[in-house]
Structures are given as structure tokens and as C-alpha cells.
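Record now logged for everyone:
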Amino acid sequence: MKSKRQAKILEIIGKYNIETQEELSDRLEQEGFAVTQATVSRDIRELKLTKVASGTGRQKYVALSENHVDMSEKYIRVFKDGFVSMDMAQNILVIKTVSGMAMAVAAALDAMDCHEIVGSIAGDDTIMCAVRTVEDTENLMKRLRKIVEK
């Protein structure tokens, strides 16, 4: 339901000059989606919608379009810039980073869609990643080494 609603939001803001959350809520309800203001607000944030000036001098919602390839390259650069070393303890991957970079490197890992990682915790210069299996940990380490060596 959420993905259908968010797709409809993108369609609506593409067709109409939507200036307010209330206007967007009304359009969604006309399309058969029962929504609250909190839901619309959350969808706007998740879809990274922003307001820009329209040709009439008023503001309207638009989707920020970030080139996916550019973003991937940024995440890889953050990972490479912050990475120091990595080691494993069974299915736990421990990544050492430059001091103060663990949170940024962990965010980059999250954005890189490493499906093997179940979750991670970042401190100042260390990230601990819970990985599904020992084999997945080994495969992930090989993939991350290739990124660092490029």
C-alpha cells in the first residue's frame, strides 16, 4: 500500500502544481487513498520531495532527482576514504575506519545494499556488522577489498 501511495504522490506532483500537504492529501483521497497529515509528511520526507518556485511565482512540490550512479560513486568514495582495515570473527565483520568516520562509512555500507549485512553498529572508528553466515562474511570481505583496491 505504501509503495502504491508513494507512486501516486509522484504521479500527482508530476501532473499538478501541489503547494501544500493539505492539497496533496486531498488529491490522494480523490484517488482513493485514506491518509493522515502525518502519513503525507512521512511520505514527503521518504520521497525527498522539496518545494521549488513554479512559473507563477508560487511554490510546488518536486522530487529531487539524484543520479543513482553519481550517488553510488559518492558512497564508494566515502567508504574508501574512511576505510582502514577489516577483520572477521565468525559472522561478525569488524571494520576499522579513520577516527570519526565510522558513522559515515556505515551509512555508505547501508546505501551500497550489502544484502549480507543484517545490521551494523558504528562507534568513532569501528563498525561491527552482523552478517548472515560465515560464508557471507568471507564473500562480503572479498567484495569490499575489491572496492578499496580500485
